[in-house]
Amino acid sequence: MATKKITNKIATIFRCESKGRENHTVVADLDGTLLVGRSSFPYFALVAFDVGGILRLILLLLASPLAGFLYYFVSESAGIRVLIFATFAGVKVSAIKSAASAVLPKYYSEDVHPETWRVFSSCGRKCVLTANPRIMVEPFLKNHMDVDIVLGTEISSYKGIATGLVARPGVLVERNKAMALRKVFDRETIPDIGIGDRRTDLPFMKLCKERYIVPSKPAVAPVPTEMLPKPVIFHDGRLVQKPTPLMALLIVLWFPFAVLLSLIRILVGSISPITLVYYILWLFGCPYEVKGTPPRGRGVVLVCSHRTVIDPVYVSGVMRKMTMAIAYSVSSFTEFLSPIKIARVTRNREEDAKIIKKILDKGEYLVMCPEGTTCREPYLLRFSSLFAELTDQIVPVAISVKTSMFYATTARGYKWLDPVFWFMNPFPKYEIKFLEQLPIDQTCSGGKSRHEVANNVQEMIAKTLNYKCTNLTRRDKYRALVGTDGLVGQKPTAVS
User: Fold this and answer.
1) DSSP alpha helix (H) spans, 103-184
2) ∠ CA(382), CA(385), CA(391), 5° rounding?
């Protein structure tokens, strides 16, 4: 009811002119305004699961009814305090910052309000006011939305550990929002546009020259992510879907069964002959979709797009033949359980070339993922050209995966859990397409440079999958998510 009364007095965002705003300053709320969604619970849940696993998610889920009651019947501030305490209490501040930088941007970017973004993006200077903790929202807003100023609730900490309490002046709602805005903008630099979605936004909106409300109806579809200033290519965290309260409950209920199911799938798959893995995975709810014809011959290199650590196992299962895979930083646990042989490489080009050449000389089928690391989004990272200079028997293999609950890759977590999380999905699916072997005239033996061959294979796989080629590398991924170059033993630094 409150929103309807406001709408009667203040124009809706649909009536705001966006042309000629290059020199204007815009101030907007976040939930329900810059974002389509009006609930911040999913983002707290993402952080909770990332920093504390399933137990922290359970705690947040148990606290959410109390938070909802306080929010609607006491105050917005009281409800948010409960969510902050359940999510952050006892957690390292560095872990919260890491989750905010590596996990949340993907989900925020998929929920941007089209009409607010139309106006917001047209302005030269941008400010966001939010009741959410600033530590959660700032990486997305500054790194992906080109926001200049982020004003949010500050959390308290002691010796680098979050207390779960809120620092002064408290949760940024109503008058606290207005006070925060006054500290940044004086009377001479008063913001041109103020955008909100509820009664509690009125105090800060009154400080702006123009005011617009974002109504909850009609429902709108979020902005396509490719229209945002910086698309999210790299992201981390284990949860595939944004955890609404219902989805969070399903995750909690499924989790113990998922762990048991995963262990059974891994145990049975690891001890089964490779000729039977294809059928066993189908039997245990892990379907394949296979297109093209697996290669025949000796010393063939299967060049694959890289989606999870078990790509080579699935390729071997489809071929029903033992293959050899090369790996740089695969965990000992994963190597122990693998039903196929794994050769470790060093990232020393000369040494790695000797290792690969030796495998090919034995006539082995060699599975290679020249991206060097996994990418979850529909992009292909730059292909290393090492494979191209060692053989002319090259078969591109386009691999994609579909999961519904958990991601099976990580840059910041425990890599040995990657296959565990893959098999924790109810029905994880692999889609594999074998392309035609490269003709001789498209290899180095036919006069092509190794870079030309690598780029050609990358483009062939990208076209098959409808992905985009990039020049990004493993180093770019780890710098974005962890703050390192992706070298084994290198300690993480703060991710900006």
Assistant:
1) 104-109, 114-120, 134-144, 175-184
2) 145
Is there a single domain that holds both residue 221 and residue 263? no
Closest CA to 303 of 276, 323, 275: 323
Average pLDDT over residues 91-99: 97
CA-nearest of 418, 155, 470, 211 to 311 is 418
pLDDT given for residue 1 in this prediction: 40
Q: Which two tokens stand for residue 150?
A: 């982020």
Count of domains forming the chain: 2
Q: In which domain, by residue range, is 465 found?
A: 255-481
* Radius of gyration over every alpha carbon of the chain, rounded to an integer in angstroms: 26
Q: Of 142, 463, 83, 436, whose CA–CA distance to 293 is shortest?
A: 436
Give whole-number Cα distances, 269 to 84, 276, 302, 324, 337, in Å: 42, 9, 22, 17, 9
Q: How far is CA 187 from CA 127, 182, 208, in A?
A: 16, 8, 10
Instruction: Look up the pTM and report it.
Output: 0.92
Locate 249 and state its tokens.
Answer: 């409950």
**What's at 207, amino acid-wise?**
L
**Three-point CA angle 466, 277, 302, nearest 5°:** 45
C-alpha 494 chain-centroid distance: 18
Alpha-carbon dihedral of residues 171, 173, 179, 181, nearest 10 degrees?
A: 110
CA angle 53, 427, 418 (to 5 degrees): 40
Q: How far apart are alpha carbons 58 and 45 in whole angstroms? A: 9
Question: Looking at the DSSP assignment, which residues form a beta bridge with residue 166?
Answer: 155
Which region among 86-95, 350-359, 434-443, 452-461 has the lowest average model confidence (pLDDT)? 350-359
Does residue 320 sit in the same domain as residue 262?
A: yes
Residues 385 and 338 reside in one and the same domain: yes
Backbone angles phi, psi at 469, to 5 degrees: -80, 145
Q: Whole-angstrom Cα distance, residue 210 to residue 262?
A: 56
Q: How far is CA 221 from the centre of its chain?
A: 20
Whether 403 is covered by a domain: the verdict is yes
- Let me know how long the chain is: 496
- Strand runs labelled E in 187-271: 193-196, 210-213
* Predicted pLDDT at 13: 95
In a domain, 242, yes or no: no
Judge if 346 and 415 occupy the same domain: yes
**219 is written with which tokens?**
């429902």
DSSP 8-state code for residue 275: H
